[in-house]
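One-letter codes give the sequence; each number marks local geometry. A record appears below:


***
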Amino acid sequence: MIRSLLIANRGEIACRVIRTARAMGVRTVAVYSDADAKALHVRQADEAVHIGPSPAAESYLRGDRIIEAAKATGAEAIHPGYGFLSENAEFAEAVTEAGLIWVGPHPQSIRAMGLKDAAKKLMQGAGVPVTPGYMGADQAPERLLVEAEQIGWPVLIKAVAGGGGKGMRRVNAPDQFLDLLESCQREAKASFGNDEVLLEKWITSPRHIEVQVFGDTHGNVVHLFERDCSLQRRHQKVIEEAPAPGMDPATREAICAAAVRAAKAVDYVGAGTIEFIADASEGLSAERIFFMEMNTRLQVEHPVTEEITGVDLVEWQLRVASGEPLPKRQDELSIKGWAMEARLYAEDPATGFLPSTGRLDRLHFPYGVRVETGVEEGDAISPYYDPMIAKLVTSAGDRETARRALATACGETSCAPVKTNAWFLKRLLETEQFAIGKVETGFIANHEEALTTRSAPSDRALSDTLDWLLRASGNYDPRVSGLTAFRLNAPPQSQQVMAVDGHPIAFTYSPTPPGEDYQHGFRDMPDSDAQLLSVDGDSFVIDWPRTQGTSGSSAADGAILSPMPGKVIAVDVAEGDTVSKGQRLLVLEAMKMEHALTAPFDGTVAELTVTAGQQVQVEALLARVEKAA
């Protein structure tokens, strides 16, 4: 058995490998770039080695430095994780040539499946069904157009060396073909250094079905059943599940047998995935499921397979790499229950899924679900790497229970100030189409506007937040709706304003009855008077002018900032005045309501920038108080 292991990766997958290795008594070595010097995988490993600057090309893609780190630390083996160098045949060869154990397939297997056209030809020879198309060597645009016409529109242009959705274009008509071909080739050349393409018949009702396979050095190959990864955005998987909904036993037997034949055709060793495209226009059937490609590594979505089979796939990887036979035979493997996984990303669905980077001041995962992550609260999301924060995994005896549990888990996840897609994931899981297992790969693109339009917090959510703030500050008084600091003769319900993510929102405040639980979650934001409100997987930073201290827009240096656009209607102090903590400095009128801004501590008014009657914008400096000596 391997006794020491270097993980040539970072983040979630590095932490995942470390966990199993530690349980097996294997010493672990992490590698890290400048950006990851304090990362979770570095903290968890027994030893860590710096391998270069932050850009991946200068660190995690430097195979020579990784091998040097393994030798320097006495590691016997290298686990590549996924991404980076995991499917690089040259790196795998270099590892073995250095006298180290490569935890992965043989380099020749990686090469055999690395080019899509060659892989499809190999699969045809092994009796694995492939999508109708053209894989010829003649890459002349005119020849490709003729082949596309013969296949029939629409067709898919696909880079032979592609992956991750790069170098792929759907073409609906002949007059689009040449322009899209040129675009596809250009992207393929830039991404993979190879601009050759193949053509495939476009499947009009596509589902993405994949089969987990595993081989050992003794000639044994088994499958661990299928996964459905049809919920995708721009060819990137978003939610995965196992088994596939609507899969009958006969179709399962056929597709899994084909996957085993595919693995045996390349003498496969270790964990791999055979990916298929299914024409689901009339349901799943073996006659309408075609080979797409093989991923010669552990997949991001491997936890759902682990959940339904009870197998630790990383443990199997380490045992097989150590020369042991597979721990189980095919007849010892079976499906138990259902599992689902959602990929939590640092991105904002409401702004076109723009990545969101920075420090995770607040990060909360729900209890009772499997969480695979490479970060903790206080860590940072770097702009240099994939923005995945975590994978949330649920399992149950049936699909509906697993689906509901995952939707609840996404809704209970909170993060700030970094934005996440948790609320988007919850919406996906709660759509009628997904609930009945009828989604296809184009579902998100076809419903993107409805799925990504962000909702502002409801009056109930903001009322709960204000109520909670008042109780926490000791200023709750139900006789005046709890707003003892406001100059309002308030009825049981009153109009109020809060700054939500820096923007003022008016709402009707109604106190939460004493003893009644709040419907939403709250947490203090560090180094701030602001609160984090969590609503259905979305997180909002809430500022409100408190009765003790200054507004939520007050900096630690005593700067009094306007919490929202408004008009200064009263100024109670002058520059040089001595003030006490909580003393009113000025009054701001916004949305027909008055807000008193007070001193954050005992001190002197060092600066006063406004006069009564002046209009101000959000976060404008109004005054500055210097703390008493």
